[in-house]
Specification:
heterodimer, A: 107 residues, alpha+beta, four-stranded mixed β-sheet, two-stranded antiparallel sheet, 6 strands, globular, B: 140 residues, two-stranded antiparallel ribbon, 15% helix
Chain lengths: 107, 140
């Protein structure tokens, strides 16, 4: 785990019809530049979706190794299946952490 | 309700970043094409949930990812039948077919390895009923 939620209003619960991406703004622990908002396409960090949604996109690719790309691959799968990703309010979804993303799946 | 500041601040555990995958851009190019053939459905049967431990905030799943492949079952031969039941005219020089049911010889003394029905450089098509290898030698 390398991303720590900073606001308890950022609920870790699945939306019934859409995947939910909660890591909108990330603050690096080691610098003082404030929060970074990443590209709209990004779903890395923390993504919550049901098992049915996960199966609908056939999960993650098995071909990625090392660091990077697997989250963008999953994002392309969601777009291909026309699944809209929702996000919580801008103020509540703030994180502190290192750069390497982890995706958590809740069913 | 406003939370006390010390409650909403957390510490991040430092860790080294893994090796960067420079091949990821090539994989992303074809991501949507691979959607149905590369993913959970292809490995789901090879994974067993060994243990589930729930806490108030986190559920820990311990998985056996089948490192020794004891759960792996090769797909049935029918899946590959369409791949070998074909004649590849485009790799021949003149495309004149003849039908043979067993390994035959040609007049040019060449050895040809056949893994599927194909034609020879002399214009003969050899139709094999299954994937095989044959030696074709010169006849007098």
């Amino acid at each position: 785990m390398d991303l720590i939620p900073e606001n308890d209003g950022n609920f870790y619960s699945c939306e019934p019809t859409h995947p939910k991406h909660t890591t909108i703004r990330i603050r690096q622990l080691s610098n003082t530049r404030g929060y970074t908002r990443y590209y709209e396409f990004l779903i890395g960090g923390v993504l919550l979706l049901t098992l049915d949604m996960y199966k609908a996109v056939n999960g993650f690719s098995n071909l990625y190794w090392g660091w990077g790309g697997e989250d963008d691959d999953l994002s392309l799968r969601l777009i291909q299946r026309r699944m809209c990703v929702v996000r919580p309010s801008y103020d509540s979804a703030t994180y502190a952490g290192k750069k390497t993303p982890i995706v958590y799946i809740y069913s | 309700m406003r939370f006390v500041v010390c409650f909403v601040h957390y510490l991040a555990l430092p860790h080294p970043r893994g090796q960067r995958n420079n091949a990821r851009f090539g994989l992303l190019t074809w991501a949507t094409i691979r959607l149905d053939t590369d993913g959970y459905a292809q490995i789901g049967s090879m994974i067993r949930i060994v243990n589930i431990r729930k806490t108030s905030t986190v559920t820990h799943l311990k998985l056996d990812v089948n490192g020794d492949q004891s759960l792996y079952k090769p797909p049935p031969v029918e899946k590959f039948q369409s791949l070998i039941d074909e004649t590849y005219y485009y790799i021949t020089t003149n495309g004149k077919p003849i039908n043979l049911t067993s390994p035959k010889t040609t007049t040019n003394g060449k050895t040809i390895n056949l893994t599927s029905p194909t034609t020879t450089t002399t214009g003969k098509t050899i139709n094999m009923t299954s994937s095989t290898t044959t030696t074709i030698s010169k006849t007098s």
